[in-house]
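Inverse folding, one chain.
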């Protein structure tokens, strides 16, 4: 098996484990809200945030069960935010993950209730870790996801382009940093390592958003995105071979840019 196939197999395995755990959190209970929650979470997804948490936890020797639960909580929060982002009063997206958005499938009222319920489930799932729970819910405040979405809605045209980095730092980066915190949660890492990994989460999130914008045709500076990935990689130097799983994630995302770049030459 080639190195590339081995890395891809590891990613598929991580994704399978995350999906299996999310299934246990979203047991069918009947009713449209529960169905909408399962629909929003259990569809095809990259699961980058919980996988990032799992790989950081593994690198630091964290308790795997704690890391999985915390990483899954981040994914639930992410899915809740996507439901809200897609609503007609927000970004008015009709499709999410190659199928109708939640509000198109279940109606706007049920979609809103499902988003609230997912936030509640995420918070309950980490109730025994009060500090992390505070950070989890803090990701929704006016200086984070909610503020970022409000700013994105308020901006248009050239003004949006000028503020792209600001929106990214408020709307995308917090969940990646939260995934880092999920990975560190059950570990005995030093404060220096934690701070460095949080910075890595920031750079990783910015690199991911840059890649996503490129693939969506919303931004065209390929070199700048590659530089973002380089900055993220540099933050892992101190961890040596232990960081291979995180480097593989970066390579996985970076490869998408190279592929897109080649297609348009």
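Residues assigned per position:
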């Amino acid at each position: 098996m080639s190195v590339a196939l081995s890395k891809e197999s590891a990613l598929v395995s991580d994704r399978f484990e995350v999906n299996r755990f999310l299934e246990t959190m979203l047991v069918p209970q009947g009713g449209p809200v529960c169905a909408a929650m399962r629909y929003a979470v259990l569809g095809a997804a990259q699961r980058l945030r919980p996988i990032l948490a799992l790989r950081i936890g593994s690198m630091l020797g964290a308790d795997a069960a704690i890391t999985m639960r915390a990483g899954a909580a981040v994914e639930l929060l992410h899915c809740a935010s996507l439901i809200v982002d897609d609503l007609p009063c927000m970004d008015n997206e009709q499709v999410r993950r190659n199928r109708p958005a939640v509000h198109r499938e279940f109606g706007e009222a049920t979609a809103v209730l499902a988003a609230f319920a997912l936030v509640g489930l995420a918070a309950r799932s980490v109730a025994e870790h009060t500090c992390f729970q505070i950070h989890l819910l803090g990701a929704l405040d006016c200086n984070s996801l909610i503020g970022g979405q409000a700013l994105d809605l308020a901006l248009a045209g050239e003004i949006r382009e000028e503020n792209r980095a600001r929106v990214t730092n408020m709307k995308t980066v917090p969940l990646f940093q939260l995934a880092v915190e999920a990975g560190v949660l059950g570990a005995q890492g030093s404060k220096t390592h934690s701070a460095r990994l949080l910075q890595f989460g920031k750079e990783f999130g910015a690199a991911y958003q840059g890649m996503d914008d490129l693939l969506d045709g919303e931004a065209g500076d390929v070199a700048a995105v590659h530089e973002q990935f380089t900055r993220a990689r540099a933050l892992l130097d101190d961890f040596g071979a232990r960081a291979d799983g995180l480097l593989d994630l970066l390579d996985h995302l970076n490869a998408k840019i190279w592929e897109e770049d080649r297609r348009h030459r």
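The two ends are 31 Å apart (CA to CA). The mean pLDDT is 91.
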